[in-house]
């Protein structure tokens, strides 16, 4: 598909591989041993400028834990000033006062994962003592500041209190609560090499992800498929370029042409089938609905 017919609408910006949690199911394999990568602040600012020039609508800062990236406020302000809609996907355990101010000033939306209504179970998933208390308190703070927030409950173990967790978020006032299961990427793969068949097939359709070392991936889960690097070429050349065409052809050979009907892929945390999508999309592929995790919690 040509770049003209496949506009780049949504991009994940993975600004760091550092995370204060160490979840077994982390698709990015981030941890306290992670780093901020090789991209400098100026590199990220240049990427944001290129996205704005390409007409991108939405970006989501991710990690690792993006709030641990010291220059996140500057990147958010630059993105907002460039006309991009910004969401930050955070575990919400480490939000500095400066970040709260930036969120308010720039109309940032937040998204977070929540694993249980009990501190013991939630903390056992994150492997960070006190994470449940801090996440829950910052959810309340965000809502108190009228910052849009959506939550997602990812099923990572049998018997997990997922419905109770979703209800807890709803009681706090979170209007959008989605559900998903862990996916076999990163640490959740338990050492197995990822394959194209593990993906949904919607990769590189109106979206991509950029990692902290500059690699451009067709989606956050397809990081084993590199379509370019922003340190070597501008995004306008990478998007729709030769390497991207090759990767898309490989994906199509496995999933078929019809797979590119949902943006973003419905299986990502916070975007279950028929669940809330990023503002510029607003639809999901109903063929995936049978695999949805239904929490039964009113929005």
From TrEMBL:
Family annotation (CDD domains): Radical_SAM, SPASM
Q: Which Gene3D superfamilies match?
A: Aldolase class I (3.20.20.70)
Where the record annotates domain 4Fe4S-binding SPASM, the positions are 202-251
Q: Does the keyword Metal-binding apply?
A: yes
InterPro entries assigned: 4Fe4S-binding_SPASM_dom, Aldolase_TIM, Radical_SAM_PqqE_MftC-like, rSAM, rSAM_sf
- Name the source's superkingdom: Bacteria
> A GO molecular function for this record?
metal ion binding
Q: Which UniProt keywords apply?
A: Iron, Iron-sulfur, Metal-binding, S-adenosyl-L-methionine
Record keywords: Transport included? no
Which residues are in the Radical SAM core domain?
Answer: 14-155
Q: What is this protein called?
A: Radical SAM protein
Q: What is the lineage of its organism?
A: Bacteria, Bacillati, Actinomycetota, Actinomycetes, Kitasatosporales
